[in-house]
Amino acid sequence: MDSRRFKEICEKIISTEREQNGIGTLGEKTLHAVLKEYFEPDKAKHEKRVGSFVADIVTDNGIIEIQTGAFEKLRKKLAAFLEIYTVTVVYPIPKIKWLLWIDTQTGKMTKKRKSPKQGRIYDAIFELYKIRPFMNHINFRLCIVFVDLEEHRYLDGWNENKKKGSTLCDRVPVDISEEIYFNNKADYAKFIPVELKCRFTSKDYKSAANISLYTAQTALNIFNHIGAVKRIGKQGNLYIYGRYEKKKI
Fold first, then answer.
1. Which residues contact 12 (CB under 8 A, 6 or more apart)?
2. Which residues pair with 140 in a beta bridge?
3. DSSP 3-state assignment of 26?
4. Please, are residues 181 and 17 in contact by the beta-carbon 8 Å criterion?
5. pLDDT band for position 246 (50/70/90)?
6. Sign of the torsion formed by the C-alpha atoms of 229, 230, 235 and 238
7. Contact 88, 179 (CB under 8 A)
8. Are 136 and 225 in contact (CB under 8 A)?
9. CA 191 to chain CA centroid, nearest Å
10. Using one digit for the tens of pLDDT, what is the confidence trace for 1-41?
11. Average pLDDT, integer, range 181-193
12. Residue 139 has pLDDT above 50, yes or no
């Protein structure tokens, strides 16, 4: 991780976009553009056609796909790319987020307000569920990146203060705090709280991770599918899970 270089890239891309388009008209591409240059500075390796698709980055070590939105858009690409390349999916999660609102009439932007919510690794669960059939592939890799960013939204919502249902204008990164890589099923133990016992249920997981039961059940569905945990019994209506154990040779 290189926070200094990340900040330099942020400043360069944001200043370039604002010179061309103006504040509040950046489009939902700033975060994607910054991450693409951060993971591969050589622009000659960006946006390369591979078969019927265009990959974000193609290097001698494989493909890197920066996915800032919904993962269902990745499924066709992964089906094609994984058969011939190692593919690393990069997914950013806002660690610290500031909210800024843009008046649609005047274009003026409010002062930024820090969101009380901080991003966590479990924020990736529902997107990962959409690509779980590919996560066991020998060529699949995942990188979760925690970034600090400003979220710019238009004041065009349907309630009195125009914030409910508002339109996202842009997400502008300002710093990077952590990169977490998952190269095999053993690495997904990073999603399993260390305080959990060797045998646990979805309710135990919910409590240890401080997430909803639905999120816990979805996570364990994924990890059971890829072999990162295993179902070893039942307790009433709940499955009992065991941690992944690497076989001894």
1. none
2. 87
3. coil
4. no
5. low
6. positive
7. no
8. yes
9. 14
10. 889 999 999 998 888 765 555 544 444 489 999 999 999 99
11. 94
12. yes
Query: In 107-199, which ranges are continuous DSSP H helix?
Result: 125-129
Between residues 102 and 222, the one the model is more confident about: 222
pTM for the predicted model, two decimal places: 0.88
Per the CB < 8 A criterion, the answer to whether 164 and 157 are in contact is yes
Instruction: Evaluate if residue 80 carries a pLDDT over 80.
Output: yes
Chain position carrying tokens 């590919």: 134
β-pair type (87-102, 62-66): parallel
Q: Name, in order, each residue with C-beta under 8 angstroms of 223's C-beta and a sequence gap of 6 or more.
A: 188, 191, 192, 229
In angstroms, the CA 105 to CA 162 distance is: 13
- CA separation for the pair 76, 104 (Å, rounded): 36
Task: Please give the span between the terminal C-alpha atoms of the chain, in angstroms, as a whole number.
Answer: 34
Find the angle CA(243)-CA(244)-CA(246) to the nearest 5 degrees: 140
User: In the 8-state DSSP scheme, what is residue 132?
Assistant: G
- Alpha carbon distance 110, 26 (integer Å): 16
C-alpha closest to that of 23 among 12, 15, 11: 15
Q: Which residues pair with 113 in a beta bridge?
A: 99
What is the share, in percent, of the chain residues with pLDDT greater than 70? Answer: 92
Instruction: Read off the tokens for 34.
Output: 């910054």
Tally: H helices and E strands in the chain: 6, 10
Residues 6 or more apart whose CB falls under 8 angstroms from that of 106 comprise none
Distance CA 80, CA 49 (A): 12
3-state class (DSSP) for residue 243: strand
Domain ranges of the chain: 3-183, 192-243
